[in-house]
Structures are given as C-alpha cells and as structure tokens.
Prior knowledge:
There is one protein chain. The protein is 52% helix and 9% strand. The protein is of the alpha/beta class. It has 2 domains: 222 residues, Rossmann fold (3-Layer(aba) Sandwich), CATH 3.40.50.300; 65 residues, Histone, subunit A (Orthogonal Bundle), CATH 1.10.20.140. Strand 2, helix 2 and strand 3 form a beta-alpha-beta unit. The N and C termini lie close together (5 Å).
Amino acid sequence: MLVGPTGIGKTAVALALAARSPLDVISADSRQIYRRLNIATAKPSRKELLRVPHHGVDVVEPGERYSAGHFARDAAGWIASVRARGRTPMVVGGTGLYVRALAEGLFSEPVLDPAGRRALDAFTARLEAIELLRWAGRLDPGFRGGGRQRAARAVEVALLSGRPLSHWQREARSQRAIDPWYIVLTAPRPVLHQRIVQRTGEMLRRGLLEEVAAVLAEGHAPGSPGLDGIGVREAVDCLHGRRPRESVAEAIVVSTRQYAKRQQTWFRHQLEGDVLALDATRSPERLADEIGHAWERMIGTQPCA
C-alpha cells in the first residue's frame, strides 16, 4: 500500500513504479470514487489512466453514498481480478478508513430497507451538523465522531437494523483481503504546504468552480456525499454566494493543510505491520527505485498490495 497525505505525490510515484513492472492501481481515495469531479479530487489524467489501469475511480454518482465497507468489498474483488491476470495490485491513497477497512476488514453490512433509507436521508439532510453528531452518539455509544456522512451512516444503521454500527463492526468483521506492506510518503511541512498551494492554484485555473457548477446543475444537492469534500465545499459556497471568489483558493489551502496534518498523524499511529517511510522530496523515479529494491529484498517475486 502506497499511502501518505494529500498533495504528497502518491500518483506520480505509482506511475513511476508502473514503468518498472506491470501493475494496476487500487485507489483508496474517498473522493475520487465520485464521477465527473475530476479536477476537484485531483484524479489521474485520462492519459495516465490509459497508461496504468486504475480501480476505484469514477465508481458512483455524486449523490450516492459509498462507505469504507463498500470499498473493502469492492477492492478485494479488484485485487483478485488483477492478480488473476498476472499483474500486481498496488493500493494507493490517503483515506485512512479505506486503508484500514481493506487491511483489517469491516462488518458485513445488514440489509436495510430502501424506503427507510430514503426517508432517513431526507431527515438527516435537514439536521445541522452538530445535531446530527448528537443523534449518532445517542444511537451508537461506540460512535467515534467524524463528518456528516459518518454520522448519517451511524444513525441509518442503528435505526434500520435495530443495532448500532459499532455492534456490526464487532460481530461481523469480514475476512481481511490482503497482508499489507505499507510505503508511507513523507515530506517536511513547508514542502508539503507549498505543494498544496501549487495544486490548489492549478485546480482553480483548470476550472474547479465550473466543474462543481456543472455537477450542481445536474440536480445534486449541495450536501450530497460527493459534494462534501475539501475543495468542493468551498466551491459550492462560492457558487451559492456564501464566499467571495477571491477567497476560495486560500480557504481550500487552509482546509487541505489541516486535513493533511490529520492524515500524517493517522499514518504515524494507526498502521500495523511492515512500514517503509520515504522522503517524498526526491523524484518519483528515485522513490520507485527504492521501493522496488526494498520489495525485492523483503518478499521477492510474491504479489504485493
């Protein structure tokens, strides 16, 4: 698994690794699963996707929810398919919950009534974020907090299944799909901050606001799961007159830096097993060489994830 904070350069390193040996990328990015939000989620370009097969990109519509449990099940299938074709699957991403779900396994989701889900979606969409979090905490004593999507998920499972989400996670964990080897990309904070500034400017120049406007024009609500990510939220605020256009870039940079800091903390403390930390200030090609040599020394020719 190639992991690290947003903006660190994971995609470039994965592409450099693909030049060394045939591999497919399994994207562990909770934003890139949404279709048409290409600029906003920093997806690989069309040329890069043609060069290296990617799985986990453009999976669902912006109005659909997609959980870590869904990802774990889908990714297990993608990994098996890639290996069956004699290629190497490499999980690449920065969403800690997705990484954990795949490496450790998550619960087998209970069957939930579709009509009940629609009614609850309408109910939770009307709640303020703090009220939604309170509901999640009341219904599930094991709820550990998070954003709107995680809180809404906890409420939905508790009310429709009769048991809290934490119960299902304890009682019905799925079998882990892989035995992970982690490569964690790191960089000094000033370097990462500068990369975030550069990437944000490029996203806006390429048409971030116009892309988000087009998705909203399709009829997706501003609070839809696909429109709740960093960069998209700020664009939605601007398009709805809640934020001046000239303040969008700085707002995205601040939010992205805060998120990157949380990611770095998570990857420092939550990964178990073999971990190789690499300084990402070096070129993707040098990093790919080092990863390749380390892999050959540790495991030889066995397939990796």
